Each structure stands twice: as C-alpha cells, then as structure tokens.
Amino acid sequence: MQRAGDSATRCWLVNHGVVRFFYLNEQGTERNRSFHGPGSWVGGSLPPLVVPSPYAIEALSQVDAVELDYGTLKAMADSPSAPRRGSCAGDGPRIHPAGAP
Description:
Largest sheet: 3 strands, antiparallel
Number of helices: 1
Strand order of the largest sheet: 4-1-6
Shape: globular
C-alpha cells in the first residue's frame, strides 16, 4: 500500500482485511509497529501534512479499502458543510468507548 520513505499523500478506510505498519531497525530487521482491521483509518502521516512516511503499510490479507487523497480530504474539511470542532453532528456517527452501550 505504501513504502517507508514515500511521501504520504493519502489515507485508507479499511473495510475488510488486515494491514500492518512496520519499519526497518538499524540492523535492517523488520519490526511491527501496529496492525489494523475493518473500520480503521490508516495512513503514513497525519493529514494534511505531506511528509515521508516513517512506516511501510502492507496488506496481510485481501484488503478492501476506500482510498482518500489528502487534497480531497482537505477540500471536504474546508467545505461550509463540514462539521466544526465543538459542533454537534446531529444524526452523524458517534464514538463510544469500548464496553459502553
């Protein structure tokens, strides 16, 4: 999906499958950073920063994901209808801590 050192210009919403983030240590050995499955947003940097990704992102199984480039994400965030910090999204998605109803 993305090699370490490539400019991070997009992110993905994983719908199905598993991806891992990994890097090479000083001895050249692969080290896992994290694993992500369905419902996870993944990317090599924090949008909208286009910087080299410190991690490689690899699909560990057949992955179905929605790709969103940072330019599109920024345009969506800048639109007048985008939710703003501190606003209430009405019927939009809600985040529930694990174990909460």
